[in-house]
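Annotators were shown the component list below and the corresponding predicted structure, then asked to write short factual statements about the assembly.
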Amino acid sequence: GAVVSQHPSWVICKSGTSVKIECRSLDFQATTMFWYRQFPKQSLMLMATSNEGSKATYEQGVEKDKFLINHASLTLSTLTVTSAHPEDSSFYICSAKRGGAGYEQYFGPGTRLTVT
Amino acid sequence: DAKTTQPPSMDCAEGRAANLPCNHSTISGNEYVYWYRQIHSQGPQYIIHGLKNNETNEMASLIITEDRKSSTLILPHATLRDTAVYYCIVKAGANNLFFGTGTRLTVIP
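Structure shown to annotators:
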């Protein structure tokens, strides 16, 4: 149980285009989903937190107009990187949490984005 | 959330127990200790968490000192597939997970 999937697993896009990454909780309902970014040889950095049906909360320094997050249902959240640039190339990882204070987060396998 | 300190790297012989330490001297009474690991180019995997009692599951054991200022994750019989970066995270309730630099564990044949 507690499986989280991401699609695509990797994507290459041209500079200036937009890319959408999907995150799904396959066997549970996720009231909260999280998006992280990880650059090579660095740790995960939280980008934003989203609750189903409400606007995402972005961490300081993360541009909400560039990284659009939609959490339209209890099993799906999407991250759209708009007008991507080479510096947006990174490993994007989502996680999902059931409701309740004590539940651990379950992470997706990540999406490798390369912007050329 | 309390800050944690972990050694940057450790080696362990295959088949032996891997003991990964974590210091969290500023932990508050309502904060849990979580352990995750990240195998190269994959998303983090939840391992175990605890508040003050020792915990054990099919993956590992978590030993928390009585004063809760430090803990140790124990992988009883390390295999090559346990090579990963292990993160010790302290957080309260519904707060978010913030990852530090973790410990890179290398299991040696």
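Statements collected:
1. Chain B touches chain A at residues 32, 34, 36, 38, 41-46, 49, 87, 93-94, 96-102 (CB under 8 Å).
2. The mean pLDDT of chain B is 93.
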